């Protein structure tokens, strides 16, 4: 079972991007139980290959010692907000839900693949025929 969780987490991490994300705020009390998932998600999203997908994304950490329940606030570029109350969620569940929302709001989603034609490559004849003598 642990292997399947690791494999699924690795799959999500490889595909994760932050293109539509403006800010992610992690709020938690490190002395409470059940904060490992939020700490794992924070360290996962702090990986260079994920941060490079949108260098404008701000990761904020609000560490408290007052028994505050762990939560992740995600602000998107379009003004929409998403809140994860992570007390009873696993790292995989959080990453899965986050990936789902990020993928849905991806600005590159509506762009089609660039088509390479002979004319765009410059290798086509461009309508020139053989010259007659």
Automatic annotation (TrEMBL):
UniProt main location, coarse: mitochondrion
Q: Name one GO cellular component term.
A: mitochondrial large ribosomal subunit
Q: Region Disordered: which residues? A: 106-133
Signal sequence range:
none
Q: Which InterPro entries does UniProt cross-reference here?
A: mtLSU_mL53 (IPR052473), Ribosomal_mL53 (IPR019716)
List the subcellular locations.
Mitochondrion
Give the UniProt keywords, A-Z: Mitochondrion, Ribonucleoprotein, Ribosomal protein, Transit peptide
Give the source's domain of life in one word: Eukaryota
Q: Which Pfam families match?
A: MRP_L53
Family, according to the entry, reads as follows:
Belongs to the mitochondrion-specific ribosomal protein mL53 family.
**What is the name attached to this protein's record?**
Large ribosomal subunit protein mL53
Q: Which organism is it from?
A: Elysia chlorotica (Eastern emerald elysia)
